[in-house]
Amino acid sequence: MITLQNVSRSYGMGAGAVPAVRDVSLTIEPGSFVTVVGASGSGKSTLLHLMGALDQPTAGTVLIEGKDVGAMNDDERTLLRRTRIGFVFQFFNLLPTLTAVENVALPARLAGESSGKTRGRAQSLLERIGLGARGNHRPDELSGGEMQRVAIARALMMDPPVLLADEPTGNLDSATGNAILELLRGAVDAHRTVVLITHDPSIARRGNRVLTMGDGQLIGDEAGSPSVPPRSSP
Amino acid sequence: MLALFREISLRHWARSPLRSLLVMLGIALAVALYVATQTAANSMLASFHEFVARVSGRADLTIEGGGVGVPGDLLSDVADVPGVAHSASTVEVSAQAPEYGESILVLGVDFLGDPHFLPFSVQEGDHRVIEDPLAFVNDPTAILVARRFATRHSLTKGSRLRLLTSDGPKDFFVKGVLEDSGAAASFGGQLAVMFLDAAQVSFARGTFVDRIDVSVDKGANLETVRDALVKLAGPSLTVERPDRMGVRLRALAAPLEGALGLSAFLALLVGGFLVYNAVGVAVAQRTREIGTLRALGVTRRRTVQLFCIEAMLLAAPGIALGLVLGQSLARYSTETTMKALSRLATAMPDLEPHLTWDVAAGGIGAGLLTAVLAAWWPARRGASVDPAIVLRGSSTVERTRLPLVPMLVGSVVLLSLAWTPFFQGSELGGGLALTATVLGAALATPALMVGLRRALVGGVEAVLGLPARLGLDYVARTLGRSTVNVLALMVAVGMSVSVGGWLSSIERSIGSWVDEIGIADLTVTLGSPIIDRRHVPLSTDAADKIAKVPGVDRTQSYRIIDEPALGKSFRLVATDTDVFLSEAGRRGKAWLVVDGAPLQPGELTARPRILLSENAARRLHLKAGDSLTLHTPKGDVAFEVRAVIVDYTSETGAGFIDRRFFSQYWGDSAVDGVSIYLKDGVNDDKVADTVRAALGGAGSVFVTKTTTVREQLVDSLRQTFSYSRSVELVTLLIALMGVIGTMAAAVIDRAREIGMLRAIGATSRQVATSIIVEAGFLGFCAVVGGAGLGVVACKLFLRTMVATDMGWHLDFIFPWGATARIGSLVVATSALAGGLPAWRAARSNVSSAVVCE
Fold it and tell me: Does residue B441 have a pLDDT over 80?
């Protein structure tokens, strides 16, 4: 569960400070598929970063699974991200020198697990997303959709309860984007939450809860598509 | 363009004061070194003119001797040659004043002879410099000193001045002060004048003088007079016009001029390297802005121009600073150059360096050109990035696609060329071979880095984890940029290994040679512990005093002079050969004969025979059994080459004869050093103290144990390379600054990747590890490549310069110590140099890093 209590985030100091998120309070329950929509500069990404412990609020409290992110030091936040949160970015951010399977295994390797131990798990994740045969390919040998699928597999590698996706379909054509969306929807289960940022209202409507940001504030919080699973497995 | 510069560039540079400062300092350093070395070179040339004017004075011709000097009695015959108007003898000694720790040029002139060439005016203003000339010439302790020297040491008429003479330290008394004009001014006041006979006695010149100056009658033909003098002087003496002497000196100083030119070039390269790095970082940081400008219609060429103009304008204050610094540095470099020249040839006139307009203009031009050329490459790389890619936020990390195979082939060709016989046998060939080697190494560097990465990646990952592997991966991705840094570091390592190799090779060879011939218990010299330009010959009286010291069993004196033969010059060593041969035989040692039968006592005293060192035999094209005619003051004497021996006395070669023949044919009884063989059971320290006391007891009397002679020889060799060592250190520092720049650019390039790694769970320590391993790997590649480059360069040096110029054969000894030292230093400091960027990367804001998409 993610809880934000009167969270604000400003950049800069004093009179020149620019507020990116202002006094946002919300709770995201496990097993939900939440989409965040809003105009450019409305504070969507900042909100996501606060939820993912990438950033810290200048005011208010962010609780992830009941733990106050603001009270954690850098190492504790890193450990939290590594084990409890998965990230999917718009530009995939795969490491070009690693193969697909190595990219997927990256979080586990950073956690100190051996290559042999992680490889099988990464390969099975790739097979689950339909890229079993592409494990030994490098990113420059994959299409955009394939790269994003590898990025999703990487986000799932540590089996985190929270998956945060920042415009994951923004760099893909609509057919590929739909496939990726389905993959993310499929990742939601009784224990796993997916929060997805988009500026596309049609994508936003596919979440079972739609948050709307405007000028750094939460200006809308409504139910989305009722047909979103929870499913039992990714 | 100016608007772009004003509105964009200036703000960037103002926001990055450290980087702006780096560009300015890089250029300031380059211009300062350029200006200083050029000014030193100009001072050297001016000094030649001054020197020629001084030695010649009003002379049209100068007679000089190659070995012991010019027989003093030749003067009267010279004066009788038709066409000779004036002639005078001079003794010229660079003497030590031990109480002041300074050297002073002592001229011995004949006040009673022809006053035409006197280096001062007898009547200066209202007073005579010497009040009573007759009393002066009759007093062997009478001396005149220059005004500046007198003022500096508070010397007035009657003051005592202690100088190191061939009989040990001796007191002289000031009888007059020379005004600062003419010769006295030329040497910054470090000048003293004494009567010719007194100088001959004090400095063991015997009946010899250093030169005879001649001026020719107005109506006489100079060449005719010269021919007559050549005939009179014989083959052992030279008769030259003073300007010829300048040409000879210039030739002697040519390597020094070359070294200065090379230093100036290196300084510009170093400055360029710093600018390259600073602009490289700026380009990396402003990639997005470049993309925007390009998208808005700024052409690639204009973008490049913008960065070049930026570099030029930043260079302007650097150039101004460089000119100011250069002026101060010029004083130091001129002094160093003159000292080096004085070691090479003779005491040179002391000239104040002046920054001339042409040198200043050269410095400004070189500074601007360096800035533009160094900025062009990274600017071009930045401008060539597709604006669409940049604006889309995709990775802009340079993916170098270097043609590794053709580069390797080129490298092999160049390295093979360097070893072909065509490039060996001459200094020029050696230089070309070295250039080919460096270029070959440069072409092989990317392949070496790729190969080393492949070899190490598994092990590094196993030990240090995945982040370390990512660091190595990044080097492979930015091969072009990394290569420049590795090359810079490689040159520093290569220099170190090469000098280390040369030293260990020569230490081994000289060490075994000294072990064979250094059999005496003690060696006595004056002025310097070894025979060099600072030492003073001992008089026969002094040698006799040593022989009479209690505890001394036998003494072996030696005299070393440069002797012309067969159109070349070599070092002639006259020594007590029987003493050496019998003492060596007792100890199971000997001269190592490489051509001829082993030597027995008596063989070199029975008749004129000579031993030649390998290099002398090679240079003179002689072998055992041949005859070598030496032009002695008593006429030509044929010496039989008894054997060719292993010997490292001189790079020009050495010949050994018995002192008996030297005294007989050269008429010179001075000795440069005395080796002492002690009686059994005698305490060597006690004997050394007694010898010192017998020779005046000053610190300038050196009684050296033979065991330390080897160390002193090696020390003097090390000192020869001290300049290389400082260049090596500076190169290393600059290269390490380059590593910092490269790693800073790498961190900027990889901001998004680092952000992603941090987002998915990489700790700040893991990120730092990745950067530090990357920097350390750059250092490691430089060590591997530099060690190879150093070995090849050293072998080339031994095969070309040493073998060809000196005729020495030295076996290459790999300098394990020097390589380990520089290797560990480079890898450790490279990793440390990566520390600052690593620290910044680890502390970077994860959120803004991932947002940079």
Answer: yes
CA nearest to A33, candidates A208, A192, A223, A217: A208
CA distance B537 to B671: 6
When CB atoms are compared, the residue of A81, A90, A98 closest to B760 is A81
Banded pLDDT at B532 (limits 50, 70, 90):
low
Of A98, A107, A115, the CB nearest to B761: A107
* SS3 (DSSP) at B546: helix
Q: Could you say which of B756, B763, B764 has the minimum Cβ distance to residue A89?
A: B756
Q: Do B393 and A95 touch (CB under 8 A)?
A: no
Strand A33-38 relative to strand A209-214, pairing: parallel
Task: Inspect the interface and report whether the beta carbons of A90 and B766 lie closer than 8 Å.
Answer: no
At A47 the pLDDT is 92
Of the candidates B399, B466, B474, the beta carbon closest to that of A109 is on: B466
* Residue in this structure with the two tokens 């790079």, named with its chain if needed: B651
The pLDDT-based confidence of B133 (bands split at 50, 70, 90) is confident
Residues of A within 8 A of B763 (CB-CB) are 74-75, 78, 110
pLDDT at B853: 42
Per DSSP, B646 falls in state -
- For residue B447, pLDDT over 90 is answered with yes
Which candidate, B729, B746, B763, B836, places its Cα nearest to that of A75?
B763
- pTM assigned to the model: 0.69
Contact A106, B760 (CB under 8 A): yes
Q: Are the Cβ atoms of A96 and B395 closer than 8 angstroms?
A: yes
Residue B634 CA to residue B638 CA, distance in Å, equals: 12
Taking phi over 0 as left and psi of -120 to 50 as alpha, with beta for the rest, B675 belongs to beta
Pair A35, A207: CB distance under 8 Å: yes
Give the residue from chain B lying closest to A11, CA to CA.
Answer: B848
Cα–Cα distance between B290 and B384 in angstroms, integer? 10
- Put simply, the chain B residues between 386 and 445 with a CB less than 8 A from any chain A CB are 392-395, 397, 399
Q: pLDDT exceeding 90 applies to what percent of chain B?
A: 9
Contact call for A106 and B476, based on CB within 8 A = no
Dihedral through CA B566, CA B571, CA B576, CA B577, nearest 10? -60
Q: Which residues in chain A belong to E strands, given as ranges?
A: 2-11, 18-28, 33-38, 59-64, 67-68, 85-88, 162-166, 193-198, 209-214, 217-223
CA torsion angle for A99, A103, A109, A114 (degrees, to 10)? -30
Give the tens place of pLDDT for each residue, B635-684.
889 999 999 988 887 777 899 999 999 989 888 777 888 888 888 888 88
Instruction: Kindly state the average pLDDT of the residues B30-40.
Output: 80
Which one has a higher pLDDT value, B216 or B241?
Answer: B216
Residue B762: closest CA among A148, A106, A207: A106
Q: Which residues of B183-216 are buried (b: 16+ CB within 10 A; e: fewer)?
A: bbbbbbbbbbbbbbbbbbbbbbbbbbbbbbbbbb
Q: B595 in contact with A at a CB cutoff of 8 Å?
A: no
Amino acid letter, residue B132: D
User: Cβ contact (<8 Å) for A107 and B476?
Assistant: no
Query: For B120-144, what is the mean pLDDT?
Result: 73
Which three-class secondary structure state does DSSP give residue A23? Answer: strand
Predicted pLDDT at A128: 85
Say if the Cβ atoms of A87 and B759 lie within 8 Å: yes
Structure confidence at residue A11 as a pLDDT band (50, 70, 90):
confident
Chain-chain contact of A89 with B853 (C-beta, under 8 angstroms): yes
Backbone angles phi, psi at B613, to 5 degrees: -70, 160
Share of residues in chain B with pLDDT > 70 (%): 80
| Residue B455 backbone dihedrals phi, psi, to 5 degrees | -70, -35
